[in-house]
Amino acid sequence: MPSNTHGFSWVPRILCILIIIFLGVFASDAFVAEHSMFQQVSDFLIHLVPSLILLLLLIIAWKRELIGGILFTILSLVMSPFLYSMNYEQNHNIFMSLGVILIIALPILLTGILFIISYSKRKPTAPPN
Predict the structure, then answer these.
(1) Among 77, 58, 70, which Cα is nearest to 116's?
(2) What's the burial of 88, exposed, middle or buried (CB within 10 Å: 0-12/13-18/19+)?
(3) CA of 77: how far to CAs of 5, 80, 88, in Å?
(4) Could you please report the per-residue DSSP string of 6-32?
(5) pLDDT tens profile 37-73
(6) Are 65 and 81 a contacting pair, CB within 8 Å?
(7) CA distances (Å), origin 18, targets 12, 33, 58, 69, 85
(8) How many helices (H) and strands (E) does the chain have?
């Protein structure tokens, strides 16, 4: 019975696109009436950097699932302590800081794991002797 590995390979790609869109929406908070147009555009571009990094990783993972999966996994694990400490300094709330990690880093980790699984399902098996 043939497996549907082709359909599964779209799951991490779609998840990553949704994460990029989700993070990109937060870039719109750079548009504040009190700032000049130049300041707003520069703030907007700076806020888009995480989405652009994920887009670059998605492009890599699209062609090289294993490498992309490893990069997504490493990114999520490396950024988690930074996200936690940055948010804890702002709100001094452990649970809120952990919530930010669950909302941002966990989907990126899941994307990496899914790319690795997708690669392993596509990997040709050696013929039996």
Answers:
(1) 70
(2) middle
(3) 27, 5, 17
(4) HHHTHHHHHHHHHHHHHHHHHGGGG--
(5) 888 888 888 889 999 999 999 999 999 999 999 999 9
(6) no
(7) 10, 28, 11, 16, 25
(8) 6, 0
